[in-house]
Write a structure and sequence with these properties.
By secondary structure, the chain is an alpha+beta fold. It is built from 14 helices and 8 strands. The strands form 3 sheets. Strands 5-6-8-7 form a 4-stranded antiparallel beta sheet. Helix 7 crosses helix 14 (313-322) and helix 9 packs across helix 10. It is elongated.
Length: 324
């Protein structure tokens, strides 16, 4: 028995020695530069990247390389336009890291800083650095369901949506909506009803003249500054799109609606039917209007994407719809 154990140990020692003495695997040789051709440096690679960008100017190469961390696609136009310098380089670098940074608005971000990078980009993308109404531009009705209406976009004179349909009495106030929004509202309403909920439309399409009457009345009661926080001026109203509904329940008003089961259901489910909450809580500095838990705007297929992004429609429109 002892002899067998001795032989087994001897075999194990021999195998161990064989393994340890086995030659190590020879690594594959690294590629060598072509004879006579110097190895490329990091600067060489950066120059090659810069040369692929439209507007590349060999005479400005030194500046491109100095601010290269901005990224080739940003540094070339920022240098060419004289926007970046040693003083603002760090701020621009932080700004370009925001997912919704827009090159076309770089100077505006620098001129209108907020407490954080995100707040700066958000504010400028929503045009809050401009004078409301005075610096507004005419909106583009060809954007159809995505048309913008806020303090910086107004409708052309006499604008009325073409595909308006009357709202049946069972759904609320007898005004009208654009057909796609109305059909979507009915689907949303019926889905809520299956869960024991009930609400109605208290306001939908408003003509320019109707908004004149409403706004002037608010100004008489509260003054211009206060009225501008909760009411649109004529021609600037989201309601003039024909895609907007104000919703209440029979037991609530504008002050109490947000606490109802219907409001909670709409906040969670309206995007499934193409509607977004147009003026969300905590975003008055971005939208220009106070929180309205009852105000829903139809934007169609992108509603869930808008909601998931966490952006107000004001910023979403600039980045994704207008597409600067």
């Amino acid at each position: 028995m002892k002899r067998k154990l001795f032989l087994l140990l001897a075999l194990l020692l021999i195998c161990s020695a064989c393994t340890s003495s086995a030659p190590a695997e020879t690594p594959e040789p690294s590629p060598t530069p072509t004879p006579g051709e110097p190895a490329k440096t990091e600067t060489d690679f950066r120059v090659e990247q810069l040369q692929t960008i439209a507007g590349f100017d060999e005479t400005r190469l030194e500046d491109y390389l100095q601010y290269f961390d901005l990224g080739p696609h940003y540094v070339v136009p920022l240098v060419n336009q004289g926007i970046v310098n040693e003083e603002n380089y760090g701020r621009l670098l932080d700004l370009t890291h925001d997912p919704y940074f827009l090159l076309s608005r770089a100077s505006r971000y620098l001129d209108n800083p907020k407490e954080t990078v995100r707040e700066t980009v958000e504010s400028v993308n929503a045009d809050r650095d401009r004078k409301p109404f005075d610096e507004a531009v005419e909106n583009d009705p060809s954007k159809d369901l995505l048309v913008q209406a806020n303090k910086y976009y107004h409708f052309p004179d006499g604008y009325v949506p073409e595909d308006m349909v009357p709202i049946a009495a069972q759904y609320g106030i007898q005004t009208s909506l654009r057909e796609p929004a109305y059909e979507a509202y009915i689907r949303m309403y019926e889905a809520a009803r299956t869960e024991g909920l009930d609400f109605y439309i208290t306001s939908a399409y408003r003509s320019y003249d109707k908004q004149v009457s409403l706004y002037n009345n608010y100004v008489r009661n509260d003054g211009v500054e206060a009225a501008d926080r909760y009411s649109a001026r004529p021609g600037f109203s989201d309601h003039q799109t024909g895609l907007t509904v104000d919703i209440l329940t029979s037991s609530s008003n504008f002050s109490t609606f947000e606490y109802t089961a219907e409001a909670k259901w709409l906040a969670e489910n309206a995007p499934r039917f193409g509607f977004i909450m147009r003026y969300p809580d905590g975003k008055e500095d971005v939208t220009g209007y106070t929180y309205e838990s009852w105000h829903f705007r139809y934007v169609g297929d992108i509603a869930e994407a808008v909601t998931a992004s966490g952006l107000t429609y004001d910023e979403y429109y600039t980045y994704f719809v207008r597409g600067e």
